[in-house]
UniProtKB/TrEMBL annotation:
Superkingdom: Eukaryota
One Pfam family cited in the UniProt record for this chain: Serpin
Domain Serpin: 36-164
Secretion signal, residue range per the UniProt entry: 1-23
Gene3D superfamilies to which the protein is assigned, alphabetical: Antithrombin, subunit I, domain 2
MF (Gene Ontology): serine-type endopeptidase inhibitor activity
Species per Swiss-Prot/TrEMBL record: Culex pipiens
Protein name: Alpha-1-antitrypsin-like protein CM55-ST
Cellular component, GO, one term: extracellular space
Keyword Signal: yes
Record keywords: Protease inhibitor, Serine protease inhibitor, Signal
Coiled-coil ranges (or none): none
Amino acid sequence: MARKGDGLIRWTIVLGLIGAVMSQQSTVSQKLYEGSQKFALNFFKKISEFVDSDPSVTTTNIIISPLSVWTLLALLTEGADGKTLRELLDVLNVDNQNDIKYNFKNLIDTINVNTSEVEISSLQLIFTDITQQRQQAFDDNIVQFYGQDLLRSLDFNSSPQARK
């Protein structure tokens, strides 16, 4: 029977296996790889502490993707500057934005697997309010450095569209 806190141990093993695969990929910046791994472990630690300390949490069947959270925060660094950028980089465990910008595609390509036996893929999107104009440089950087158009504009005031 699963006990609270067991999930962190299981995920540490999974991260170790992913790390073994990624460490063999020389095209991924070592700093970016280490930063994403450190973020994932810290993320799981915080979630595990929350689950263990909150009596209202009655299940250990929780699925969370720290990679998805990490990649979305990494994408947001493109639109941040000053204190916000420094805080994002600190949370992501990355020294500078260029480590993310120039190695992100390689990191995602390393993680995404498509063989006849298994397929692993990830996709993150950023939804912005259609009434708020984004800076063109932000849009251009997302497309150029992150591989595809990951931005979607929605009318947040239109309930049916916003719910989809």
